[in-house]
Specification:
- By secondary structure, this protein is an alpha/beta fold.
- It has one domain.
- The strands form two sheets. The protein has a six-stranded parallel sheet, sandwiched between helices. It has a two-stranded antiparallel sheet with strand order 1-2.
- Helix 1 crosses helix 5.
Amino acid sequence: MESRNCSYVLGIPVDRKPLDLAISEAIQVIRVKDNKQEQVFFACANPHSIVVAQNDKQFREALNNASTVVADGAGVTLMGKLTGLCVGPRITGHDYFNGLMSALNSKGSGRVFFFGSTQKVLDLIHRRFARDYPALTFCGSISPPFGEWPEKDNERMIAEINQALPDVLWVGMTAPKQEKWIAANRYKLNVAVIGAVGAVFDFYAGTSPRAPELMCKLGIEWLYRLLKEPKRMWRRNFISTPAFIFLVMRQHVVLRQS
């Protein structure tokens, strides 16, 4: 993007903007969407996703083409400090989701669509949505098939999303599937803001509790998730995180000094 204020961590742009600026930019795009202002594609970068992107060209390109990529992971901000990289503050997908939804609700309008997860999770989100954001319109949801799906099904789902006229499309699939899907389809979607927020669907639905607030503030939410979902999270913490530290130190410290 033009004059983008970011740092590149292993080739992935991580924005320096604070949460309030990211939210205000999204609100502005929603407000003037009929003027064809640039669409917002929000994504998160954590040590695991950055490591995966090193060997996944399609994922890497999706992150590079996103309009906002935040440091969602204490490891990214910590390595930024240790190596002198000026990355922005830690902003989780949950922070962005809650911030944008609350801002739109305060302004009194907004149409929101949810794409991803299971129908059970989407139904729970719908019920809570009505209580938390009474000024907003839950204009639809789709639980897509797991795995890959035919292009005709993809076109049908895109048409359903567009017919609902959402201002915001939240996409809740696992990374890198969600980022790749957004990158491949964003310009077919008549939506001002598209956010890849993954586990936020389960957090908001209550099917997977988020870490206590203190652990989140201390940057050890990863420990809570590891204890809760060891089979799913062990690879991220015991393979991707050490790999991330090694690669960052090699590229941004050793090679820079040689």
